Amino acid sequence: MHTNTAVMRSLAIIVIIAFTAWTITDAQKINPCCVKVCTAKVKEPIIGYTLQRENLSCIRAVVFQTESGFFCIDPQQPWVKEKVMELRLAQKNKLSPSSPSSPSSSSPSRPVSPRLITSTVRG
Predict the structure, then answer these.
(1) CA–CA separation, 82 vs 33, rounded Å?
(2) How far apart are CA 93 and CA 81, in angstroms?
(3) What is the CATH class of 33-118?
């Protein structure tokens, strides 16, 4: 009987450890985010953006989307503020009923997948 109890405890510990590891990895897959930012300008054409709020391990960032991927950029940079305003204006003009419909550079052409986020700027 003593052996049975020891085996059950060992199995319970293994299950708890496996469940914890699975939960942690699953949470990282579901909610990846920028953990550092770059201050350099993105040299590729920017086709969309999202604003990331500070939360747990995530930091405040502007995530710019380009054809080759996503870039975590410091939102305090003057060029970033200008680019976000430019993209917002383009989106506003796109949504305006009086303006002719034309492709806008402010909305992503495909769904944003935060798993592709990178903080490096290629130049």
Answers:
(1) 23
(2) 18
(3) mainly beta
Phi/psi of residue 43, nearest 5 degrees:
-90, -15
Alpha-carbon distance of 17 to 7, in angstroms, equals 15
Question: Which tokens is 94 given?
Answer: 């796109």
State pLDDT tens for residues 47-105: 999 999 999 889 999 999 999 999 999 999 999 999 999 999 998 998 877 655 444 34
Q: What would the two tokens of residue 110 be?
A: 């495909």
Place of tokens 């060992």: 10
> What value does the CA radius of gyration of the chain take, rounded to a whole number of Å?
22
* Cβ-based burial of 115 (10 A; exposed 0-12, middle 13-18, buried ≥19): exposed
DSSP reduced 3-state for 52: strand
